[in-house]
Amino acid sequence: xxxxxxxxxxxxxxxxxxxxxxxxxxxxxxxxxxxxxxxxxxxxxxxxxxxxxxxxxxxxxxxxxxxxxxxxxxxxxxxxxxxxxxxxxxxxxxxxxxxxxxxxxxxxxxxxxxxxxxxxxxxxxxxxxxxxxxxxxxxxxxxxxxxxxxxxxxxxxxxxxxxxxxxxxxxxxxxxxxxxxxxxxxxxxxxxxxxxxxxxxxxxxxxxxxxxxxxxxxxxxxxxxxxxxxxxxxxxxxxxxxxxxxxxxxxxxxxxxxxxxxxxxxxxxxxxxxxxxxxxxxxxxxxxxxxxxxxxxxxxxxxxxxxxxxxxxxxxxxxxxxxxxxxxxxxxxxxxxxxxxxxxxxxxxxxxxxxxxxxxxxxxxxxxxxxxxxxxxxxxxxxxxxxxxxxxxxxxxxxxxxxxxxxxxxxxxxxxxxxxxxxxxxxxxxxxxxxxxxxxxxxxxxxxxxxxxxxxxx
Amino acid sequence: xxxxxxxxxxxxxxxxxxxxxxxxxxxxxxxxxxxxxxxxxxxxxxxxxxxxxxxxxxxxxxxxxxxxxxxxxxxxxxxxxxxxxxxxxxxxxxxxxxxxxxxxxxxxxxxxxxxxxxxxxxxxxxxxxxxxxxxxxxxxxxxxxxxxxxxxxxxxxxxxxxxxxxxxxxxxxxxxxxxxxxxxxxxxxxxxxxxxxxxxxxxxxxxxxxxxxxxxxxxxxxxxxxxxxxxxxxxxxxxxxxxxxxxxxxxxxxxxxxxxxxxxxxxxxxxxxxxxxxxxxxxxxxxxxxxxxxxxxxxxxxxxxxxxxxxxxxxxxxxxxxxxxxxxxxxxxxxxxxxxxxxxxxxxxxxxxxxxxxxxxxxxxxxxxxxxxxxxxxxxxxxxxxxxxxxxxxxxxxxxxxxxxxxxxxxxxxxxxxxxxxxxxxxxxxxxxxxxxxxxxxxxxxxxxxxxxxxxxxxxxxxxxxxxxxxxxxxxxxxxxxxxxxxxxxxxxxxxxxxxxxxxxxxxxxxxxxxxxxxxxxxxxxxxxxxxxxxxxxxxxxxxxxxxxxxxxxxxxxxxxxxxxxxxxxxxxxxxxxxxxxxxxxxxxxxxxxxxxxxxxxxxxxxxxxxxxxxxxxxxxxxxxxxxxxxxxxxxxxxxxxxxxxxxxxxxxxxxxxxxxxxxxxxxxxxxxxxxxxxxxxxxxxxxxxxxxxxxxxxxxxxxxxxxxxxxxxxxxxxxxxxxxxxxxxxxxxxxxxxxxxxxxxxxxxxxxxxxxxxxxxxxxxxxxxxxxxxxxxxxxxxxxxxxxxxxxxxxxxxxxxxxxxxxxxxxxxxxxxxxxxxxxxxxxxxxxxxxxxxxxxxxxxxxxxxxxxxxxxxxxxxxxxxxxxxxxxxxxxxxxxxxxxxxxxxxxxxxxxxxxxxxxxxxxxxxxxxxxxxxxxxxxxxxxxxxx
Lengths: 458, 933
Fold this sequence. Notes:
The structure holds 2 protein chains of 2 kinds. By secondary structure, chain A is mainly α. Chain A has one domain (8-142, 160-456): Formate dehydrogenase/DMSO reductase fold (Up-down Bundle). Chain A contains 16 helices and no strands. Chain A has helices at residues 8-14, 25-37, 43-69, 84-108, 118-138, 165-198, 202-212, 219-252, 264-291, 299-330, 333-344, 348-360, 368-372, 374-401, 416-439, 445-456. Chain A is globular. By secondary structure, chain B is of the alpha/beta class. Chain B has 4 domains: 32-172 and 348-469, Rossmann fold (3-Layer(aba) Sandwich), CATH 3.40.50; 178-341, Dimethylsulfoxide Reductase, domain 2 (3-Layer(aba) Sandwich); 515-637, Beta Barrel (Barwin-like endoglucanases), CATH 2.40.40.20; 653-671 and 686-922, Alpha-Beta Plaits. In chain B, the strands form 12 sheets. In chain B, strands 5-4-18-17-16-6-7 form a 7-stranded mixed β-sheet, with helices on both faces. Chain B has a 7-stranded mixed β-sheet with strand order 26-21-25-22-24-23-27. A 4-stranded parallel β-sheet of chain B has the order 13-12-9-14. The radius of gyration of chain B is 29 Å and the shape is globular. The interface between A and B is large, with 51 and 54 residues.
């Protein structure tokens, strides 16, 4: 069995097709656009929205409460000064990473199966990065001054302190967010034009038309679009790597045992891809089921993603092992103590759970049957998402709780605010995603059509 | 005017609405009036602090202090170097006095039966009763006070006795030491008081005594202890301190060799020593360790004749105290004995109760004490007091006793009144007010004068006392001098001499199966300080517990009862019971429990009420031990908040808190290894001074004076028990406690940890806004205005010395009533009060450096060595903290950094800390170590 990600050419011979043989340009457009433009939302959508919206409102209430009373509402203390907001931030950035990475990397490597998943993966990126971007602000003691991280001209004639990883981080998130918006939008233009043309209401035609920027589908426009899109994809890949590397540097550029690890930047990037693909699997399964997209989101898509997840899991396991080995081999008492604390200390149950979720559970994907079993894949993805969150929170808790001076070793106890801001943003994400599904094509129409054309080429 | 600009009705209304909206939007801070001085008080320059000498009271004794006052507000207490019980240092209680002054719960008005009244009404009510009392020679007139040494008070009592010959004065001291008094009486035939001179002793044996613990003698003893702990290269004279104790004390923690034994065994150790010194008395059965210990003690003591003594604690019976007097006489011990004026001795509370019940008491004045809380609870006190026809209470708070009295009069704070006090060595000093009384309050002297039928100010009363002491015609000059110096020259008492104690008869006692040993609380003392939030939040030296007390228990006993830390235990004795959580602590002898007095107040105020457990409830008399205790589990859990969690170390102590024996120290060859490793980081650009601090861990006894001093100086907020339990304590200076050593010499090492002011500070590069920066004199400073609260600096600080305002602890979200207006007055105006969401930390008292710099600049000279004294350094009774300019090679800190035992905390991280340490040097008796527990 080959472990390689199935290329388009190879896949045509191997597995079931990525598109039904009978698909035509018109049928593809109708299949994707009509549920949004003509169809009603459907009961499933409304139920999902009814679940997500109140919880999303709780996010707003939790934030208001936090701003009113202060960040003492979190379970943080003088030793474990960072808590769940930072873990959430890293986790959401990780999710956010995968969308653009999948889209750009698969585009550059000409993985044509990407056409079915890139659009909603990019949307996922946008929403996840927006939510991620909230947390560093929420965790600040004085959130109203978050903009002091930006070098704006001010009467104090002060600039940010450039040596701080948090300033790098600020730029990394900001540039990634801006880039993701542009990348998402550029990919969307031809589809917006298609929506403009198919829209049944005048309002729809005006709004989609305005955003379509006068796209007519001329050969010149297509050529420019392709060049620009490929160029953006080429920029995207290093950017994606940089953003999570820099998140890794938030920890690595420090002095604390368990943080000052040179392996952190690459390990964070792989971790991001790992959890990001898990999230894409979940969303793909939901969309496939919700819109009846079995034709375009095929089992082969899931199998390809399962293989990436499996590979990432192996890299993660190797990274963990490297971390432990170098901690032990370095011989520093504080490092060794921190690792011993991780394995047997107060948070050890979570740590073992993390290892089960991230290292053990994905191993079932060695079996091709499991890779094609969507339920199993969903279960593994959920385990990975939980496991990766444990990893992020434990990076914070283990190091801060087991620092250099024993007198200041303290534990973290989560509070109501922590729980609220852990759970409620998931609903906010779900709500944003549900709105996205009702406004924009969840699958790229023009790329699906391109796929059909390429396939019919001799 | 065109049509559009015509002001129509609609437009007018729109404009009006707009204007209203602007008014609302334009709200600003409320205007506050500032009234300038019409006549400027002499010497008062705004912004320039003044210092006045005064005396503070603890257990009736005086400790001389210098109080800093700014624009008429007392804001800080420092030691008075001229006063023998201060020697320039303070203790935690003295430092916290400022907080008591501004306590919002202080009683503010005279009350009659709970209703607000006034002083004139009280005098009116008093007058007819006094006349009838005078007619009866004062029969039935009783005055109850706490312990006091005030000469003015004594004079007033004498003068009252002229008008009321049958007047009786009773005194009640909840922390009285009857064993010492009876022991002295047993030995010398009269109640001599004694003062051990630790500075003159080579060998000190503490038998369950606590000379270094909280009390009026703490500073004096600590200084004496420190005088013999100066391990320096090229000359050390290190004394040896042995402790045999039943439950942990600060003295035991600082002892070179410590043994924990039940009280009966400690008595036996005393007997064994006496026998070795030639006493003819029956042998007491000794355990194996105790025998070995006693043997060594006797040898060491007799080898240092004239420079050794034994001291006994209050938990030991009088005959052991008497035996110690005999031993000390054999050793020609450096102890001063003082005669006690027999006439000045008050009657006891027990006598008062008896007389009350017999209906002999007509008018009872309870002045500045609180027997309803701290007297042994016979259950009869309220009833007995109720039988007096006139019951008046003078107190700073409307407390438990005030509730039993018809009249309550607010008592002036010691910083508001005139008085005088005597130090334990007999030196008298004056108490002068730093501020006019904040409320309509009276001092003890003013109330006594009122009973005497005269209206006199405290000022005149105190002057009257001392008129005779001054040289003729020079009273004014003498008085000014006494006020300025804070000590009255020539008033010291000469020690008694030619004492020949007799060998006492020892009574044998049956050993108790389970015994409770009481101790004064190291933070709230006897409970009168319970409403002081600084003291409630002060970590106890040994357990680091705050806000309450817990039952100390030996690990083996806890195991036998099947309980763990935080489980609530019910102690029953004499038909009464109390409940408190336990804390397992080595240093308790088997069968011995310990509990601190001073907690569980029911009417202390909004801070102190209901905090902890009232151990007084178990007492039958002033005894410090309660035998026949029955301990039962309640099944409840109530862990007390603590600032340092307890767990076993992973071998770090050797690195973090190195300790040498005296022999190892002498063997150190004197060359100091270069602690700073090479680095890629550029050196800090420093133009002026290079400030540095060296802390000698051999000297630190963990007394906490520095912690409160830092809090007072730097406006550190109090956050309350819940926030401490959440791990957010705000002290800039903490004292880490390390349990080190093995059996026989297990002790606690104390390491004060302020900010290290690292040269390559890990907090600086990680701050995104540049709020954590290095200044040109090597200080690592925090710019509060620039801080947005990312907390990366604290995350990256290996010493974890930064503190974060998770809530507006000092800024709108204060604990309890600490946000009251009056509390603002205690703040040091030279230090920013931090707002919510900013990081803060030790600044090396940058405001003091700045003041010294301004003074030096004015005179165009460099800052002299020793000119800048940080708050912690100034408070330290043992002078363990040195601070100065490292660029001056000859400065004392530079010299200390060249000592062989000098080390950097976490030096391997190459943070190049400016706060460094001298490792502990202990003069261990090697014969007693190496035995496993």
